[in-house]
Amino acid sequence: MADRLTTLQKLIDTGVIAVIRADSGDQLVNVCRALSAGGVQACEITMTTPGALDVIAQASRELGKSALVGAGSVLDAETARAAILAGARFLFSPILNLDVIAMAHRYDCVAVPGAMTPTEIATAWTAGADVVKVFPANHFGPQYLRDVHGPLPQVKLTPTGGVDLNTAADWIKAGAVAIGVGSSLVKKDLVNAGNWDGLSSLAKQYVDIVATARRG
């Protein structure tokens, strides 16, 4: 099992974290497999998905060597510990809960809390956040990351919420170390149809956009 810093570096290198939120966990291992085949190697299973812990456990067993499997919508330390024991290597949260950061690090797991204001972002970073999730990012836009990085250039930021093919490059150019992409990547029509090749192709588009944006 990779340590926290190795996991963090892989998340950053990949550049795209798939936020997988579903009404059922039945197809999610196939979703993760298809995303990984397209180059999106970080799959965040949200805890709002029925049977999320079982999906995390299964995906970790089957895809542990080809993909990073993590948990999203983690609101408290108890959920954090359960997700880690199920196999999650990183934890994303829409909120800032210091106990979640502490629990993640206790188990050598990457912690990415959610924050919006400069005070919340600085508090999360001071508490040891590996990356700070700017959420909901779509209400502010890429310029907000530039503004935050003015006084806080050391903080690693990842936007989530409304990121799509049209804005992905702008977020990277604004200083995001990675982007979190939900329904614009994990499209319901592709999942419902079992169109795994289509999902892999879409994943590759995001990975290519991030790579191009990073090259400047």
Automatic annotation (TrEMBL):
<dbReference type="InterPro" id="IPR013785">
    <property type="entry name" value="Aldolase_TIM"/>
</dbReference>
<dbReference type="GO" id="GO:0008675">
    <property type="term" value="F:2-dehydro-3-deoxy-phosphogluconate aldolase activity"/>
</dbReference>
<dbReference type="InterPro" id="IPR000887">
    <property type="entry name" value="Aldlse_KDPG_KHG"/>
</dbReference>
<comment type="pathway">
    <text>Carbohydrate acid metabolism.</text>
</comment>
<dbReference type="GO" id="GO:0008700">
    <property type="term" value="F:(R,S)-4-hydroxy-2-oxoglutarate aldolase activity"/>
</dbReference>
<protein>
    <submittedName>
        <fullName>4-hydroxy-2-oxoglutarate aldolase</fullName>
        <ecNumber>4.1.2.14</ecNumber>
        <ecNumber>4.1.3.16</ecNumber>
    </submittedName>
</protein>
<keyword id="KW-0119">Carbohydrate metabolism</keyword>
<comment type="similarity">
    <text>Belongs to the KHG/KDPG aldolase family.</text>
</comment>
<dbReference type="Pfam" id="PF01081">
    <property type="entry name" value="Aldolase"/>
</dbReference>
<keyword id="KW-0456">Lyase</keyword>
<comment type="subunit">
    <text>Homotrimer.</text>
</comment>
